[in-house]
Specification:
Helix content: 25-40%
Number of helices: 9
Structural class: alpha+beta
Strand content: 25-35%
Order of helices and strands: HEEHHHHEEEEHEEEHEEHEEEEEEEHE
Oligomer: single chain
Mean pLDDT: 88
Largest sheet: 6 strands, antiparallel
Low-confidence stretches: 22-36
Length: about 375
């Protein structure tokens, strides 16, 4: 049986049509697949974990990811691949060409606006632990030139192991010392490690001081991979403070104050009136003072009980009053367990002839924080 030439032509024509349709379908499928792959940005994310377990950080190839998103949006706006890649690379010729072309420039602006509305990143970037799950999300708030919302879960790995340390270990590396005198002692410490303790400058031997690590040092420890075993504070006992009364030449200062008191409480004896003073030492006090050069010096004083008797012979009458007054020297330097007596030029008077001992002491303690008695 012979097949007519017409039938052969018809079959050939139908075959071409079918092949053409198949080719078109493959093309459409390839386009969809390629388009989908081009917008699958989350697959490009490469997390980089660093730091210590419990205090880890994560970064990623942000520049590469941003470039891919930008290129996608430029292409989606209608710009060619060459122009999209040239704009990202900052190619001067392509940038100038896009600016000159009104249509391309509008597409460029539309894509840039869409890119600024893209949100990308991990749901957590710090204080990470090994094995922790992180979500990387990409989404857009744009109404035009949108990108598919997508996310991917990553597991934190490769963070370094932490090391344990106690505040006792830290204190051994950064020891504290005590200076000054019993009753007015100070603690010397590393201010980058510990906070200023309360009442510094008023310590006595056997006092207990509460020391705490300062927040910045705690952060430094964390960044170096250390964790505290227990508390971030410790109690230390004050020791080794000398007695102020042990200064080798303190008695000389007391003697000079007493010599001055004889002039301060000097009476008179006239035919018509007589004024007499008698005095006795109540106690001695000292207090550390900063002078104008910000050097530590001392105020040393003696409190006297003074009896004042006024007598009028003509009337054969007398009046007696008792008051308390403090005399002393201030801004006396101290070096090598001795007071520098060449600086006894700051004489001070405290109190009046109406003062009781309680009132005088109250005024002195209000004026000089850390006032201490010595024998």
């Amino acid at each position: 049986m012979r097949i007519s030439s017409q039938k052969i032509k018809l079959v050939a024509k139908n075959k071409k049509t079918i092949l053409g349709m198949i080719a078109f379908c493959f093309l459409m499928i390839a386009t969809v697949v390629l388009h989908k792959d081009a917008s699958n940005f989350v697959s490009l994310v490469q997390p980089i974990f660093s730091g210590y377990d419990g205090n880890g950080q994560v970064t990623y190839n942000e520049k590469e990811l941003n470039n891919q998103i930008q290129e996608y949006l430029f292409r989606k706006s209608g710009l060619s691949k060459k122009k999209a890649q040239g704009l990202i690379a900052g190619n001067a010729a392509i940038v100038a060409d896009v600016r000159k072309n009104a249509s391309d420039h509008q597409k460029f602006l539309q894509a840039v606006d869409a890119f600024h509305k893209v949100k990308i990143g991990f749901d957590k970037v710090s204080n990470l632990k090994n094995g922790e799950k992180l979500i990387f999300r990409i989404y857009s708030n744009a109404t035009d030139l949108t990108i598919p919302t997508q996310e991917k879960v990553f597991t934190v790995t490769d963070l370094k192991s932490v090391k344990k340390i106690s505040i006792a270990d830290i204190l051994a590396k950064h020891p504290v010392t005590f200076t000054g005198f019993n009753g007015s002692g100070k603690i010397q410490f590393d201010e980058t490690v510990f906070d200023e303790p309360a009442d510094n400058g008023t310590y006595s031997n056997n006092d207990s001081i509460h020391l705490s690590l300062c927040p910045s040092y705690l952060s430094e420890l964390k960044n170096r991979g250390y964790v505290l075993k227990n508390s971030s504070s410790i109690t230390v006992k004050v020791e080794g403070l000398k007695e102020f009364s042990q200064l080798s030449n303190l008695s000389e200062v007391i003697a000079k104050i007493d010599g001055f008191s004889k002039l301060e409480f000097k009476g008179y004896d006239l035919p018509w009136r007589r004024l007499l003073y008698s005095k006795s030492i109540v106690s001695h006090y000292y207090v550390p003072l900063r002078n104008e050069q910000d050097q530590e010096t001392f105020l040393v004083m003696t409190i006297y009980e003074v009896t004042r008797t006024e007598y009028a012979p003509a009337d054969d009458q007398s009046a007696t009053t008792v008051f308390y007054k403090a005399l002393g020297y201030r801004y006396i330097p101290c070096e090598d367990n001795k007071l520098d007596l060449s600086h006894l030029d700051h004489l001070k008077y405290y109190g009046s002839e109406q003062d009781t001992l309680e009132l005088l002491l109250s005024d002195l303690k209000n004026k000089y924080t850390g006032l201490k008695e010595f024998n």
